[in-house]
Amino acid sequence: MTIPKNMTEVTSNWLSEKLGAIVEIRSANQIGQGVGLMGDIFRVELDCQNEAANIPSSVVVKLPSSFEENRAQGVALGMFEAEVRFYQSLAPKAPVGLPKIFHAEIEPGSADFVIIMEDLSRLTLVSQTEGMSAGQAEAAVRVLASIHAVWWGKVQVPELEWILAMTGPRIEYVDQLLEQILPVFLEGFGHCLPPGGAELYQRFAGNYLNFNTTLAKRSPWTLAHQDYRVENLMFGAEDTGEVMVIDWQGIGRGPGAYDLAYLLGGSLDIEVRRQHESDLVTIYHEELSRNGVVDYSLKQAFDDYGFAHLMGGLATAMVTGGSMDLSNERGKQLVETMASRHITAALDHHGLTLADQVLADR
Question: Is the pLDDT of residue 221 over 70?
Fold first, then answer.
């Protein structure tokens, strides 16, 4: 066996082989239930017979979701392969924000994958329903800009074509899905939308690709996380500014404003976002500039950020709420939070007007 099918197949012998030292599993406990919709995550405590091997006392093992519907989505969208390849080849280039990866492997074209990574339990995980503080948001924005800067204007090259573009087949697939699931989504989550929210979701369904293409034509491309939200981040103390970014299954090539809007639109309480988003967008732009990005004005950053609220956050809420197995209240509450916050952010940034302009220009 190379790739375990589930946690019962993660044995001491298997871990010893992958970690390069003889270890014994003392305990294995699932963490983040209801958070990782596309993966099952376990904290594994270890005993190592050789102290010189420098093996940690615990690691995190990530396996595909135990729900078949979610596994099928991960395969169809290429999410499992994307994360494994990211950790194998791209992660070492990021200056900050990435955990240590001990092993990453996948059977191509399937949901059979495994990732062994650094245990980050010393850090704090914030629930999306609770939302980030303004200080945590600033730290997350600085890390995001530092990562974006590495690949800014450098991803439209043949060697990175395995990363799907935000204007490519994955978005086309999602676009078709959105039209199909719109009635289910609105029936299940329409009650948590503000005035104008249902109307904007109706314009969005079937036009996700149009909105993405509009921004992609005018804004520089980078490597985007595409699920850069608080529950995929782990925080150190606020005075350290430490942030670790996990769950790279959805990476894509496209405008960096996608990640910025996705983070601030969905991971901050609505009033906190409204109070601090101008400063946070400015910090994002300053950090890009500090890391060598040129020819990208603060005005364009603000314009791109406002438009990007019409993109990923709306799609994630719809796909999760309309097509995935939400068998626990935690998952349903997460979708309610994402749906209401993201649509409110889009409406705050003139989403109905922007959407109508795009649709009129088709």
Answer: yes
